[in-house]
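Figure 2 data, in text form.
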Amino acid sequence: MKNTIKVLGIIALAAVIGFSMAGCKNDDDGGGGLSAPYLTVSPSGPVTDGTTVYLDWTPIAGASRYNFYLRYLSEGQWASKSMSSTSASYDTRGDAGDTVQIKVAAVNANGAEGAHSNVVSITVTGGSTQPQPNTSINGTWEYTSSSSTGGGGGNPTPGIQHSQITVSGNTGRLTRRSYSPLEQDAINKGYYDINSIMWRNITSTGNLKWSGQTLAVLHRTSTPDIAGAAQWYNCTITMSANGKTITIVTPWSYENSSGTLTETWTRQ
């Protein structure tokens, strides 16, 4: 086999990205009784030599792992790799002029393989390598804009303007460079952490998607709300295809109010 299959990470519930697939349905069943996953690829068209192609497949109930199959049409033989994730990437470097076919199958705890997925074909052309986005969420992100629905005292991220988030692994820290008078009053009273932990439990959920929790430092119009000064909300994070921006969507509820906050951050 020409290349190494690179696993992006263990993803319990990878999001399936809808692209039109080349290839056909393969109903091979090794006796495991498991359904066939549905395999998707991004980018979906012909790619230039050296492009990284991202693949996702639907999780199958009862699967303990997956067998990932790959073959070159120029060689004709399938090679396989076992993995526990439902997402992978493939580096096409050195494959110009060839077509790569990929399929997956779920495997149960007894080692029996279920039905094979559809076969995805990746045609690799010559020419310059397509620019690859920086798809890692690690780094420093500058606040760009935000919008919200709902109202009341439950805005989960007050005063995020003029702020940066630095992400490393599954956590992130928020640094503010300017504060409202109310925020400064809260800091003076010891209620507000200048380097509040903004994100935690950041976990990949598919290609360019993460879940996590975002910190809400809550206050009313005059004094900090001590009881709610460190409330965490679940959020989703989506990165742009070029890796330059992320969008954080946070549903929130507080007292009798609820809504959704949408924030955009730009990579620095």
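Caption note: The two ends are 38 Å apart (CA to CA).
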